[in-house]
Amino acid sequence: MNCKIGKAAALAVAFVLAAGIAATASAQVFTGRVDVAVEDSTGGRLPGVTVDIAGPTTQTQVTDAQGTAHFLNLPVGIYTIKATLSGFNTFTNPQVQVATGAATPVNIRMAVAGQVETVNVTAATPIVDTKRETTTTNITLEELQNIPTARDPWVVMQTVPTIYVDRVNVGGSESGQQSNYFGKGSLTSENTWAIDGVPITDMGATGSTPTYYDFDMFQEMSVTTGGADVSNATPGVALNLVLKKGSNQPHGGANFYWEGESLQGNNMDPTLAKSIGGSSAACASSGYTEHCGNRTDTYKDRGFDLGGPLLKDRLWAWGRIGQTDVTILTLTGVPDSTTLKNYAFKADAQATTNMRLNFTFFEGNKTKSGRGASATHPAETTWNQAGPTKYYKGEGNWTLGQQLFVSGRYAYISGGFSLTPQGGLNTAVYLDDAGSWHGSYVNYATTRPQHFLGADANYFSGKHEIKFGFSWRKTPVDSLSNWPKDPNSQIPGYSIWNSYPSMYYQVVRDLPGGFEGRYSTMYVTDTISLDRLTIQAGLRFDHQTSSLVAAQVTAVPSVSFPGLPANQQPGYLLPQLSAADVSNAYDFNVLSPRVGMTYALDDARKTIARVSYAMFASQLQANASAFISPIQYSYALYNCTDKNGNKLCDPSEVNGFAGTSGVNLTNPSSLTTANKIGDITAPKTHEFMVGLDHELAPNFGVSATVTLRRNVSVLWNPPIGATSASYLPAGFFDGTFANVGTVHVPLYALPASVDPTAGYVTQNRPDYNQRYLGFEVSATKRMANHWMGRVGFGSSTWTEHFNSDAAKMDKTVGPTQSLFPSTLTASGPLVDGGPVVIQTSGSGKSAIYLVPPVFQFSANGMYQGPWGLNFGANLLMRQGYAEPWYRSNVSTGDALKPLKSVLIAQTADGSRLPAVTDVDVRVEKLFKFGKTNVALDLDVFNLFNSGTTLGVQYDARKTGATGYNNVLEIMQPRIARVGARFFF
User: Fold this and answer.
1) Residue 930, number of CB atoms within 10 A of its CB
2) Which domains are assigned to the chain?
3) Which of 267, 364, 838, 906 has the highest local Cβ count within 10 Å?
4) pTM for this structure?
């Protein structure tokens, strides 16, 4: 009885320590662990054995009554394990590999002391993790450094079979911007980023990273796409970036990579080059066969790092400085230049035998000229971007006896950036009939600091391992967007051609925003080890809020349009407004169960079967509360006809009032919003997963997983007072178009009796769900016998389902679904069992429509040849993007949205762009001088010079060179990269 009371008391104390330090549920995900079991020659467990582990860090444990010792929170790398006990031969294994988030089992059998003093073991560490709860891919330092890639995290993620990305990065051509990417039936807003286990996800652009990186600062990357681990917060892709660190062994290196026009081929058809890609003199003079757009102008990547002991066995440090410069030319020859500067520093200390401390600093600064450059964004409509992100983290790890391990950390991240249009803020702007912008573009600036505090603990008791923890995070977001002012009228906004010379003029009010997200988490899980069977069961509690912070917007200048009444003038409709604080506008509380089992099918533990269930709560955007702010994206729209031929709408040319958005017409100065938040719950994802892992040979394992997901309680924002029955037939859209033929699409609209000022309401969408079914198989070969490799194949579907008409609102079919927290302005294809179609946005990729590929295959590998010659290759093959042909600005007479985008294709994914195949290769000459290495690399990207189409204009309304059915983007041509690396 006393023993049980003692264990209960220890557990209670551990929980108090964890909560008091305020810890993260994902604190251990950036480290690994080693679980040691020691037996004698008869198979009996040996307590009291001293086990030393040495490598990137050093620790000592004594085996407990069950003959086990646990080493937690180990930095990834190679370790040496030594076991000693009086009367037994010493045991040593110098090749124990620890990976991010992995549990490495080490089984030691010690013989009674005899003639041989020490037993040295060189057997490979098991590649199958018997306690694995997730589908996780660990990309090691060897792969990061020796496989030819574009050297950014998004390229690495697309090698995971079930992750699909919105672009093809040829030799770094896309490394100046973030990629949009999707996992297993989850939105980009569900994705998470972490540095050394600390969440850094940008909650103002939820799912993205707040900064960019130097590729050579990583020790390892860990990519998780699902599973029952309670540390996984969302159903999205979880990327953890593990920075290098100092150790007792001095280490460091320097690198330089370069690409240029002289190392580049040409893959553009001369006809395409002449119509859209031949703006440069070099292209035209070559007869449109060389030096045409859609290519890399220059690429330079260089840096150096150094790490080692400041005080052996006590204090270590590591630092890195790196810079990457990328300049590309878009299809139309518009330059897009990026500079990424990165600094990182780590200091680690073994303060006492049982306490380790860490401080980490990271800075990533991106400056960019020409952000957003594309076929529809010429130079003056692109952005100049600036703004560094800084990361500070302090961490402590404590070993309390043989049963309790506690970890705590605090982090602060200063984030934010500005996007300044190259055309300036005193320039007239217009959007032509081809969908191309001219003059300038919108200006944007934001600050996004983050505060994080967290701790977690592990308690061991016999066959049980109990993990528990707590975390807290605050993510304020402050922003301002504003359109340039016409230099003559000083009215902010832009002209929109509508079959020129007919056009609209959209007068836009500035949009300030202040928001704050807060996130608290508690979790507990028990791992029960029963010989071959391991059971994990846990609960996770998440509290998420989004609050509105007070803000003020200035009025639009009161310049009048002749002939219009006073109550239709911009200054009257768009006056000054002030918004008050609204605390916890969105407030989600979710209790998520997780359970999983693994079973070793053989005594050697080389074949492991897995099954798990997990429920995830969706990730709440910090700025979701913008939905109820009286300060919305607000504009007044006017009819206009260009009479003087300047391609713009001048005040004297305005001939009618066309409506407003984000304005209460009956009371433009109102400080309340018509939008409401109903009685809602957080969206949830239920996941069922089965898998099988098998070690084919030492250092060589395969894994297969089937994942089924069901997304429920999805949020939408329908008009207040409207139902599906409120939308009445409004005629048909008819026409004949290339690729789709003759169409006769029914239109629906809300009648004029509907109050357009009634607003929208956030609800859980009734009788609606989404389903994901995916299969993935992968094989991993660690570096041994002169070669390594990793192969992955995935196939998946992501569909939406309507159980009644209540799940639909506007039955006018469109190319994509509206996503929370946007108002319901697009219904999507509305096919029961049809695909979920997501349109990407940002970085010039706004016209990519992502539907999960039916097939995606990736493979990479390296072979160490004779004479220091090494050979590497990287292959990506996947189905092409969807082609949802549609027609925008279709007039329906709808009281809320008179102009709609209408899907004219029979199905959103009935046709696809060509499949993508990209092959990259490397030849390396390695020189060794003791422990010092010099590598000379030659990489060739897009080896077969594919010119695969990656983007097309799907809008049948658009005309001209960038109009309907015209190519907007192709793969970058073949290019070589030369590099030199020095490391020791």
Assistant:
1) 6
2) 31-120 (2.60.40.1120), 134-243 (2.170.130.10), 463-475+482-661 (no CATH), 682-984 (no CATH)
3) 364
4) 0.88
